[in-house]
């Protein structure tokens, strides 16, 4: 899909795994993440989530920093959620995140897994 890229599956939870992301909040969050990715030239392949976490699949280029991408996606999305849905400061992500590389042969499987979060978590 992208030349000279490492594909990353990143997952991060809400603070204390609290179920902050109801259907409306999740949609705001997903739209925000897509906007942030576009603004920061993050090559986002798939994004979805559940009530207490988000999954992203993106291509990490040679000049990209995993830590910066996590900082932008988590930081900006929490600000947007607090501005548009929650009282200021009420919503926050946990500090941690999980990230692993995904081989080209795994891409479609991981994309399908992310796309089907509602089924995976029986929402």
How would you describe this structure in keywords?
globular; 4 strands; 123 residues; transposase activity; alpha+beta; Transposase_17
Report on this structure:
- The chain has a single domain, classed as Alpha-Beta Plaits, CATH 3.30.70.
- Helix 1 packs across helix 2 (66-84).
- With 123 residues, it is an alpha+beta fold.
- 40% of the residues lie in helices and 24% in strands.
- Residues 3-117 form the Transposase IS200-like domain.
- This is Transposase.
- Pfam families: Y1_Tnp.
CATH architecture: 2-Layer Sandwich
Please provide the ordered H/E string of secondary-structure elements.
EHEEHEHH
Number of domains: 1
- What share of residues are in beta strands? 15-25%
Q: Estimate the helix proportion, in percent.
A: 25-40%
Shape: globular
Number of strands: 4
- CATH class reads Alpha Beta
Number of alpha- plus pi-helical segments: 4
| Low-confidence blocks of residues | none
- Report the CATH topology name: Alpha-Beta Plaits
Pfam families: Y1_Tnp
Protein name: Transposase
InterPro entries: Transposase_17, Transposase_17_sf
Organism: Saprospira grandis DSM 2844
Present the secondary structure layout.
Elements: E1 6-13, H1 23-39, E2 43-50, E3 53-60, H2 66-84, E4 98-102, H3 107-115, H4 117-120
Antiparallel strand pairs: 1-3, 1-4, 2-3
Helix pairs in contact: 1-2
Please provide a brief summary of the model.
The protein is an alpha+beta fold and 123 residues long. The protein is built from four helices and four strands; from the N terminus they run E-H-E-E-H-E-H-H. The model has no long low-confidence stretch (mean pLDDT 93).
